[in-house]
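*** Protein under study ***
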Amino acid sequence: MVNAMPKKAKVSAPLPSVVGSNIKARRAELGLTQNELAQALGVEVETISRYERGTVAPSFPQLEKLCAALQVRAWQLFSDGSVVPDAKGHTLDDLLARLSDRDREFVLSFVRDYVAHHGKSR
């Protein structure tokens, strides 16, 4: 019998903690207080605090509101910074490795220039 479930990946932190940490970081990037985010979502400040601490996970409808308020896609809140492959299992490193040295340097140079021009300033 074929097992349809993928093998468990090693997780560095519990998912609610990852989501909470990402909510907090994005809120801070936008310069929002917990109170401002709570007002935007129509919840109590304590709810935002619980989300950020990872003690409570947002429901799917609340997650949609969070994404809109924080101007992010849902996957960004769930990301722990790991390399995420595309639908065929390729990572950016895999794709770059298939290029010649010259082509790889061109792509990297293009990306560096693009980020320098369009990236957020810190």
Notes: DSSP finds seven helices and no strands in the chain. Residues 83-122 form one domain.
